[in-house]
Structures are given as structure tokens and as C-alpha cells.
Amino acid sequence: MSLLDLLARAALTARLGPVFVGASWDDVTAALGEPRDMLPARRRRPWPRLFGYGDLEVFVCRCREVRMLTVPTWRDTVDLPTPLTGGAGTFPGGPAEPDVIAALERAACPWEPDPALTFRDQRTLRVPPTSAAFTFVVPDDGLPVLHAMGLPDNGHRCP
User: Fold this and answer.
1) What is the pLDDT of residue 73?
2) Is the pTM of this model over 0.70?
3) Per the structure, how many domains does the chain have?
4) Does residue 156 sit within a domain?
5) Which regions of the chain are under pLDDT 70?
6) Does the residue 157 lie in any domain?
7) Are 89 and 82 in contact, with CB atoms under 8 Å apart?
8) Integer Cα distance of 159 and 96 in angstroms
9) Residue range(s) defining the domain that contains residue 8
10) pLDDT tens digits for 80-91?
11) CB under 8 A, 24+ apart: contacts of 102-106
């Protein structure tokens, strides 16, 4: 499966394998193993935390639920855990906007421009049913390039 087909499916279903907003952190680590800690915990407030599995970034709240996930795609290559990809876990980075739109259409995933996150050198496409966001860098010359795809928090507040 290509990176764009994987991201389009995630945008449509709001899931990247066992990782989704609201998932139990214990379930995620049981499926994917121990992640790398992207930001060291502070002694007085060890949560929330940002973890990484290759290029997949997962934000976890203090009640140990996934609150947000992001796949940065601006690098030369994008590495994702093979349990999520069903095969090769390394993909070329920097896909162009027309290729992203083609993948969304192949997946029958509705999308629309997000004017609130579109300005001079950035454009964002949003998937209304899941609020998934595809954010592009718009160069002075050439096609917009996908910077990141993310599934946002749904307004959860820890007890």
C-alpha cells in the first residue's frame, strides 16, 4: 500500500491501525511496542506526552488516551511501523497536492479546503466526517507539497 493510500484510509476511518483519537495507550503499546519519547517528561507534570513510532507522532493525555496523531511527510522519507503498513514501512516523502487528492478520491474520502488554515504559504484540506487535516506548504513556484496529515483531538478533557 502506498503512503497516500494509507493516509487517505486513515483520514476516512479516523484510524491508523490501532492508533486513533480516544484509543487506550495500553492498547497502542501492546500492538506497536514501546515508542520513543519525543519530549522528556517534566518532573512535576509528566503528562501529557508526545511519543513517536518512526514518523508517526502520538499525543497522549494524562488519563492515557490518544488525543491526537500526526504523520509529518515533509522529510525525504516517511517511516511508519510495519504493523500499520502491512509491508514496507518506508515511503518517499513530500507528495504533491494532486497526488493526495487522487488518493482521497480513490478512497471515496470526502474533502474540502479549510479556509481557516489556508493562507499565504500554507493550504489545508479537511475531511469533514473525521476532521482529518492534510496541510501543504505552497512554494513560490511549483505544486503544493504535503507537510503533514493529522487527526485532531475531539475536545476531550481529562477528569
Assistant:
1) 96
2) yes
3) 1
4) no
5) 39-45
6) no
7) yes
8) 41
9) 3-151
10) 988 888 777 899
11) 102/4, 103/2, 103/4, 103/5, 103/7, 103/8, 104/8, 104/11, 104/134, 106/5, 106/8
